[in-house]
């Protein structure tokens, strides 16, 4: 039997990963979908099958030919990322709903694939200024990379109305509570999603 899919999407720096981690720690019936990618491991901390499924470009392309992905994308030349059907089936077979932390393009593909079994949540920051401040405070961006990232953010934010829910993350505790309520209502079949996104 198929479980449900909860999809979190947002521009970088919006706090979606924090929300996803919170839900995973609070719900035993929720499993994280580990993505496949062709990039190298970052340092010794990343583990195959835990952080990502690290595949060679040839392996990834072979799986594309085998139709093994729910969705995939070549983010940059030779840089593939995707969601394996086997990963979703593994979590469903354990009786868990699946939660995704993906970019906007991937999220919309997942929403289309899972249909009524999906809840797609777009995490929105109060303003571009706020997001810029968050990214600057990380201390990992050059002016050039920050400019590129903010351009991508504007592009991604233009898709928010294609999601089921737009969750405004301006207060973390409140946002964690909103995410909790949304997931519980969806898992229990109490959340009805209309054509227009629910704004919370």
Largest sheet: 6 strands, parallel
Shape: globular
Q: How many strands in all?
A: 10
Which class best fits the helix and strand makeup? alpha/beta
Number of helices: 7
Mean pLDDT: 89
Give the DSSP E fraction (strand runs of 2 or more residues). 15-25%
Order of helices and strands: EHEEEHEEHEHEHHEHE
Give me the Rg, rounded.
17 Å
Short descriptors:
200 residues, alpha/beta, 6-stranded parallel beta sheet, 4-stranded mixed beta sheet, 7 helices, 10 strands, 41% helix, globular
Describe the structure in your own words.
With 200 residues, the protein is α/β, with parallel strands linked by helices. 41% of the residues lie in helices and 22% in strands. It has seven helices and ten strands. It has helices at residues 16-26, 57-65, 85-93, 104-114, 128-138, 143-157, 172-187, and strands at residues 5-9, 30-32, 36-37, 53-54, 69-76, 79-84, 97-102, 118-124, 165-168, 198-199. The strands form two sheets. A six-stranded parallel sheet has the order 2-7-1-8-9-10, with helices on both faces. A four-stranded mixed sheet has the order 4-3-6-5, sandwiched between helices. Helix 5 (128-138) packs antiparallel against helix 6. It is globular. The two termini are 31 Å apart. The mean pLDDT is 89.
Gist of the model:
By secondary structure, this protein is of the alpha/beta class. It is built from seven helices and ten strands.
Q: What order do the helices and strands come in, and which of them pair?
A:
Layout: E1 5-9, H1 16-26, E2 30-32, E3 36-37, E4 53-54, H2 57-65, E5 69-76, E6 79-84, H3 85-93, E7 97-102, H4 104-114, E8 118-124, H5 128-138, H6 143-157, E9 165-168, H7 172-187, E10 198-199
Parallel strand pairs: 1-7, 1-8, 2-7, 3-4, 8-9, 9-10
Antiparallel strand pairs: 3-6, 5-6
Helix pairs in contact: 5-6
């Amino acid at each position: 039997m198929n479980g449900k899919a909860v999809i979190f999407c947002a521009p970088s720096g919006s706090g979606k990963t924090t929300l996803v981690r919170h839900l995973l720690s609070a719900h035993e019936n929720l499993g994280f979908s580990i993505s496949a990618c062709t990039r190298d491991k970052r340092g010794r901390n990343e583990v195959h099958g835990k952080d990502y499924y690290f595949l060679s470009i040839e392996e990834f392309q072979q799986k594309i030919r085998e139709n093994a992905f729910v969705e995939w994308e070549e983010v940059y030349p030779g840089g593939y990322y995707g969601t394996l059907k086997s990963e979703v089936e593994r979590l469903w077979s354990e009786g868990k709903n699946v939660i995704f932390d993906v970019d906007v393009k991937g999220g919309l593909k997942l929403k289309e694939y899972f249909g009524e079994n999906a809840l797609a949540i777009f995490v929105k920051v109060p303003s571009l200024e706020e997001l810029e401040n968050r990214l600057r405070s990380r201390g990992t961006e050059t002016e050039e990379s920050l400019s590129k990232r903010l351009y991508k953010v504007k592009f991604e934010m233009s898709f928010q109305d294609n999601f089921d829910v737009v969750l405004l993350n301006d207060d973390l505790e409140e946002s964690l509570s909103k995410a909790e309520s949304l997931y519980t209502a969806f898992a229990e079949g109490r959340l009805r999603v209309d054509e227009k996104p629910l704004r919370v």
